[in-house]
Amino acid sequence: xxxxxxxxxxxxxxxxxxxxxxxxxxxxxxxxxxxxxxxxxxxxxxxxxxxxxxxxxxxxxxxxxxxxxxxxxxxxxxxxxxxxxxxxxxxxxxxxxxxxxxxxxxxxxxxxxxxxxxxxxxxxxxxxxxxxxxxxxxxxxxxxxxxxxxxxxxxxxxxxxxxxxxxxxxxxxxxxxxxxxxxxxxxxxxxxxxxxxxxxxxxxxxxxxxxxxxxxxxxxxxxxxx
Length: 226
Prior knowledge:
Layout: H1 15-44, E1 49-53, E2 57-64, H2 76-93, H3 100-122, E3 132-138, E4 142-144, H4 146-164
Helix pairs in contact: 1-3, 2-3, 3-4
């Protein structure tokens, strides 16, 4: 039997607070992503690179028509549709939100999706095939941006929350099932035995005496006088 304690989901009165937290997280990620990209375009647009950790981490401007980390280039419109559908799905899921950790996770995911979606909608070469600005370069590995990092962090949190068994509504574990009485139904005497009356015979048995007769001497038949 599962002994995991049952977590109660957040009451409906607390759900708006979690939704606001989700949207605030998404807004912060979106703002940081767009500000960082604007800085990269202005500072690194001439082709220069800035070493952050030697040659391991560099800042260099790339314009990516594909997915996160510069994968699957040449299919921009597909990822525009995917990002749009994902954003709508996250907003719909927020109606069942009951966990602060899930609010943070979905906020990171929504902010990252909107960050790259904004590039695809409004950057060159034009709607809806704009190229995403990437500028954090790990040479010989991949290039990414703040939105990509946020999506990756959300994916890691989703894996952890799923491992812990925490659902979007905040519930966790299952309620223990009621124990059954051996021999059948609840409250039934095991084996179906009938309770015995004083004197040893079961109640309701043929020929059984229901208790002793008042005034009778033990061991004597009714009507005998001493």
